[in-house]
Amino acid sequence: MYDLLVRGGQVVREGGVEQADLGVVEGRIVDVAPELGGPAREELDARGLHVFPGAVDIHVHFNEPGRTDWEGISTGSRALVAGGGTVFADMPLNSTPPVLDRATFEAKRQAGERESYADFALWGGLTPRNMDRLPELAGAGAVGFKAFMSHSGLEEFESPDDYTLYEGMKAARELGLIVALHAESDSITSGLARRIRGEGGRGVRDYLRSRPAIAEVEAVNRALLLAEETEAKLHLVHLSTGRAVALAAEARARGVNVSIETCPHYLMFTGEDMERLGAVLKCAPPLRDTAEVDALWTAIREGRIDTIGSDHSPSTLDLKTGEDFFSIWGGIAGVQSTLAVLLTEGREHGLSLPDIARLSARTPARRFGLAGKGRLDPGADADLVLVDLDTEWVHTTDDLHTRWKFSPYVGRTFRGQVRRTLLRGQTVYQDGTFPNPPQGRFLRPAPVPQEETA
Ligand SMILES: NC(=O)N[C@H]1NC(=O)NC1=O
Ligand SMILES: [Zn+2]
Predict the structure, then answer these.
(1) Ligand 1 pocket: which of 64, 189, 311 to mutate (most atoms <8 Å of CB)?
(2) Which residue, of 69, 289, 356, 424, is most buried by count of CB atoms within 10 Å of its CB?
């Protein structure tokens, strides 16, 4: 007897897409096959729809506790499930205090267990201030350690220097956890910003000039050397240039344990869009030109990019307003739109549906040891997204479930719409509504063998 039978959807799995039923018992998929016999307590008709694994967004900033006026786990996770996500991993900033020890970790975990509509993992921070706390963060269940090679935007989350990063990577290696790096050279970005601001530069172009591609390429190169030397597992977040991706892919080919993330905004927007739309598109690293966008799509098609994370990092509207583009908050609100971007732009750029499932769900779940997530196979959690692939829709402000109705994706036309999202067999989102109270669970990473790269 199944608890749930999802009937007749086009099921998107590693090997391809086939019409099949999914049988669910106690929140887990037990059978996937055409025309499964019943009985079932509940049946769900998915004919005409595609069934994807719930997206696993390994890079969000929901900013709770402490900055719930910027976002919060409740609104952030509602937006995630509305966009077809079922798992997120929250960064150790911009919550305040940031997650630098067990107490701050547990406070965030409790907030998530109270409020999250999705299952979740948590990152710990790696800063000069908490090097002695990495083992306790690992013990608390951190999915990895996040560090910034440039200024994080927040005084309370400092960047390690090269020596500290080197020691941090050695410690992470011992603990078996991944180090995620924001790789932009602080020396280059802050040096340029000082000079350009000294000359009176305050505009979008000035900001773009202060964070050139070489700042990313240089930092990625240094990070790869340190990872190679320490044998740490490295995850390069939000790569924005073809050159940085190429360097990381070369390092991987010679055995460095590195995975590569990019974000939907680097695939969809350019610096010119940033000039046109302003603060809604301010982020770091900044948006590039169409040649870089094309290079990233090529890298995705050719399998060099492993995961797509949103880097959802909103703030209050007043921090997104002002004459000085340098002092406006850097961060893009995109947690609800990742799958929409992949289904629309991704398909146009030659990705198959299994490619989209791999980038958005399977690889992040596997790389970060999130057992039972990211795939529609017997034994996995019944984290399902029912998508109407043919519907074309224009994203409006009313669609947004985030705290602030401010997103660069508003006004864009998308093809493929999330109709329903299930977390462990329970509907968490359906056509604009959230029919059940939050029941997200904390996910502790399972050990991933050191030799297994993404
Ligand atoms: N602190 C923070 O969220 N920073 C993020 N925002 C952004 O645009 N890039 C980042 O790393
Ligand atoms: Zn981030």
Answers:
(1) 311
(2) 356
